[in-house]
Amino acid sequence: HSVESGFFQWSAPSNIALVKYWGKKDNQIPANPSVSFTLNNCKTITKLAFAKKNISTALNVTANNFSFDLLFEGQPKEDFKPKIQKFLERIEIYLPFLKDYHFTIDTENTFPHSSGIASSASGMAALAMNLMSLEKALNPEMTEDYFYQKASLLARLGSGSACRSVKGQVVVWGNHANISESSDLFGVEFPRAIHANFTNFQDTILLVDKGEKQVSSTLGHDLMHNHPFAERRFAQAHENLNQLIAIFESGNLDEFIKIVESEALTLHAMMMTSMPYFILMKPNTLEIINAIWKFRNETKIPVCFTLDAGANVHVLYPENVSEKVLQFIQNELVGYCQNGQYICDKIGNGAVLI
Ligand code: PMV
Question: pTM for the whole thing?
Answer without folding.
Answer: 0.96
